[in-house]
Amino acid sequence: MPIAVVASRIRREERLILEAFERLGLRCEHVDPRGLRLLLADGRPPYRAALMREVSHSRAASVATTLEALGVPTYNRPRVLDVCGDKLRTALAFHSAGLRMPQAAATWGTGAALEAMPKLGYPVVVKPVTGSWGHLTTRVRDEEQGRAVLEHRAALPNPQQHVFFLQEHIDKPGRDIKAYVAGDRVICAIYKNAVDDWRTNTAIGGAATPCPITPELTELAVAAAHAVGGGFLGVDLLIDQQERLYANEVNHTPEFHGAVDATGIDVAQGIVEWAVAEIEAQERAAA
């Protein structure tokens, strides 16, 4: 049976993954979840396993949950998708694991959020619990600005915007790190350098450059990945002015073309080799 690569869009990353499977002589099949039809009475779908590369978090979590329940192992697992898709749940996982992370607070009303902000210290970062690429992430410098940001968020119709996740602002040297973790290994890491914005997300103009993989980076990145359940993950680490590292967020379906261009490392082959090793280990355990 083929390994399903589940993705509604074939970006450069998914194309590289499909090419890596072919290059390694492994059967795979692109599966667009929008056309996937699973009749529960039919039993296990005809896939050896599924590599989840769906960009929609809700669709990815739903498809992975269904496939796993019908006997198809998924990478990443549904629980990992659920935790990584929620910044508050990710922070709680870091906190439970005792990782170094920015101080954080969660509130469910504007008044409580305004009370929490000075406890974290201005400036404070206000984030939506869901979303990517730095969208709607704001650095608040005082109570007046905080009130305006929170009132705007409270007026949005999406109830997820009414969960106010606040973070201590880490004074960065204009860059932070994304580490690409597969199991217990950091495949590669990049600096995300801010360009015309305090945010470093490459999707909004941040520039990627190679980052050395130090023992400290490996320890924290792998620990952060394990805290959310493990797998192939993009782990965001913040750096302060003293070069200390902080676990910040984890992406369950990370883009990596910028890392490939910056480092020359074949991230796609690293993903495929990790996934196949996981599949084979699970198959041996079940035999």
UniProtKB/TrEMBL annotation:
Stored Pfam families: LysX_preATP_grasp (PF22626), RimK (PF08443)
Upper lineage: Bacteria, Bacillati, Actinomycetota, Actinomycetes, Kitasatosporales
A GO term, aspect molecular function: ATP binding
Record keywords: ATP-binding, Metal-binding, Nucleotide-binding
Alphabetical list of InterPro entries matching this protein: ATP-grasp, ATP-grasp_RimK-type, ATP_grasp_subdomain_1, LysX/ArgX_preATP_grasp, PreATP-grasp_dom_sf, Rp_bS6_RimK/Lys_biosynth_LsyX
Name of the protein described by the UniProt record: Azi30
GO cellular component: cytoplasm
Superkingdom of this protein's organism: Bacteria
ATP-grasp domain residues: 91-276
